[in-house]
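Pasting two entries for a bug report.
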Amino acid sequence: MAVTTSMSLRLELPKTELQIPPGLKAIILGGGCFWCTEAVFSRLIGVSQVISGYSGGIVDHPSYQQICTGTTGHAEVILVYYDPQIISLTSLLDVFWSTHDPTTLNRQGADHGPQYRSVIFYLDERQDQHARQHKEALDASGKFSAPVVTEISPFANFYPAEGYHQQYFERHSTQAYCQFVILPKVEKLHTLFADKLKT
């Protein structure tokens, strides 16, 4: 996959590999600030690990400061390792599209820029087809008043974010951003998907 810079120079995205533990599957999702998505997905049964990071950009091993410029092409994402015998890809996508606004381009609430875009980086053809069919069904259902703009692109790279970004909500739950932005998403998760939550 290539991206076009402002100089019309086509660059190949740097590639990284994922080490997926035996018996597990992985998917990479971006739904705005990764503090929010990590807090949501880490609560689901069948999810063994969630790692906040950066994916889809042209810079190798980017820093948070670089990502914040909105010029590297990366999105803030989470890498989700899950057990498909316990939680399905369909369930993960249901949670994904229900806990952020997939109709706003490059924005989630007050967070704006391409790094906050709604995106699925698929790891295989099955994920690609499943995500596209799910997205089409959402648009046809009328659940949202505007079209779903979630990007669905092949995986190229994933870089774990700096340590202080990991498990941010768990470690800073009393901070204002956590209380006013992340907590409502977690509460929505509890309301809509109570049967899919870890005890």
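Entry 2 (this is the one that rendered wrong in the viewer):
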Amino acid sequence: MEEKTNKIENKKEEKKVVKEKALVRGLSLAISPKSSYAICDVIRKKDPSKAIQFLERVIIKKLAVPMNNREVPHRKGNLMAGRYPINAATEFIKLLKQLKANAEVSNIESPVITLAVANRASRPYRRGGKRAKRTNVYLEVKSAVKS
């Protein structure tokens, strides 16, 4: 009886597989594609926890997300053009928390966001014939330490 339990425990220990990347997808999120592109540009090549801190500061309007070349007004200070996309920031925080959890499960040490892509999703009709804004988001994290 003891031999069987030892074999089962050994099999459980052997099954730990170290994955090289972790990812999360947000499909058809009700956020603006323009602000999503800008947020993806900012959080790329950052640690997920630092990206969450940045977006929390955007929500309380302490930092603006830079949106150069996107036809938005200028902000005071040393930032040229930018905005405070609160709805997009809250959705990205949810995705980043999930990405951080996926990285922990995958045993990724010192994760860094390598891919942050936002694309337009299908736009359903609303009342009055208007179209809703929808965005697909894909985030991928890999280990910063080369092994």
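Dev reply: Rendering is fixed now. As a check, the viewer should reflect this: The first helix runs from residue 2 to 14.
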